[in-house]
């Protein structure tokens, strides 16, 4: 999220109105609900985790143990089990 000068994008009257409430402070203007993106969609992180989780599930079904998966992916055994449970539900 970058900063944009209000004076460069808003009419002078709007800037003056905003200054009555917050003069010289930073103001966050949230996205419209229809334009919101969920966590990780913008930079691909969500998709990367989804692919990793599928890979973990596939390796597990091919015989890799939870302990081995935890070591390979640098996750706790509890996290691996959570991922496996989620992926099993997804397959149903």
UniProtKB/TrEMBL annotation:
Residues 12-91 form the Mor transcription activator domain. It comes from the Bacteria. Transmembrane segments: none annotated. NCBIfam families: CD3324_fam. This is Mor family transcriptional regulator.
């Amino acid at each position: 999220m970058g900063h944009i000068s209000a004076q460069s994008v808003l009419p002078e009257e709007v800037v003056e109105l905003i200054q009555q409430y917050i003069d010289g402070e930073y103001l966050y203007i949230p996205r419209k609900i229809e334009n919101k993106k969920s966590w990780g969609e913008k930079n691909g992180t969500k998709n990367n985790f989804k692919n990793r989780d599928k890979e973990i599930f596939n390796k597990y079904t091919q015989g890799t143990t939870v302990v081995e998966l935890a070591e390979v992916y640098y996750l706790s055994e509890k996290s691996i089990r959570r991922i496996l449970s989620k992926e099993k539900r997804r397959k149903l």
